[in-house]
Amino acid sequence: MRKTSMYISLGVLALALAIAPFVISNAFYLDLVIRISMNAIVVLGLNLLVGFAGQISLGHAGFLGIGAYASAVLPTHFGWHPLPAMLAGAVICGLLAAAIARPIFRLKGHYLAMATLGLGILVNIVLRNESQLTGGPDGMPLPTMGLFGLELSSDRHWYWVVAIFLVVSVWASLNLIDSPFGRALRALHGSEVASRVVGVNVVRYKVTIFTMSAVFASIMGSVMAHYVGMVTPGFADFFHSIELITMVVVGGMASVWGSLLGAALLTALPQALATFEGWETVIFGAILMLFMIFLPKGIVPTLASKFGKKGD
């Protein structure tokens, strides 16, 4: 029954994404949907780490920045094709995450938050200072990306690429959390001591989910950079990390569909508030405060518990 419900929900998402470009005629709204989808994929990976495994990360934009710059630096300076450059960025992020996860996850609470925050800030500083490779604070342009002989030069081309990425990411996340690996993550979130008692290798699961989440971010950093056509250190900025974690919290931690809703809301809301010139930041902050006061578990889990359903 649960599997059937999962595939129905996934089918509805795929159908909505398939219909959307034929319904949306305005280029601005198509661009907004693409950005929402890209953010949703990053937030899905982050939610696996934060929501399901209970491990905080305040520097996740650092991995996104590494992926973005790999897709800029390797083709520009070393003549790589954009697709292998994207894969190289994912491998670099995966290896970096696996290397630092063991010492970082020995920390708890505020100390863990500060360690991940420091990682993101360090990546941002390197990207700003290595100007010969990265272009410094001004960033650098990216070459046009081709896929299977097709040059991805229009928003509609990018829409289909990102839509496929999103459906696959949601499918993978839903299957992951329903697997023994996902159940181990939930146990880890509940109690590390109890998890060890029942035979869960706590360190291995922490390292694995942190690495997977970093790879998610790196791949979408590359996609975002190619879509925009320009990469700057802002990709790895501290505020970008906070924006991503806020999407997780607002949508609902430990909820796949909450990740999508949080990404949609926090990507679209600033655009909708742009008409309130000079007040948009105040109104945006007030809306977030109201969400946290009245929906402390996030939108999807709160509504799901109210109507007696699970929020995965």
From TrEMBL:
Superkingdom classification of source: Bacteria
Transmembrane spans: 7-30, 36-54, 86-104, 111-127, 157-177, 209-229, 244-269, 281-300
Membrane-protein topology: Multi-pass membrane protein
One GO molecular-function entry: branched-chain amino acid transmembrane transporter activity
Gene Ontology cellular-component terms listed: plasma membrane
One Pfam short name: BPD_transp_2
Compartments where located: Cell membrane
Protein name (Swiss-Prot/TrEMBL): Amino acid/amide ABC transporter membrane protein 2, HAAT family
InterPro entries: ABC_transp_permease, LivM-like
Main location: membrane
Keyword set, alphabetical order: Cell membrane, Membrane, Transmembrane, Transmembrane helix
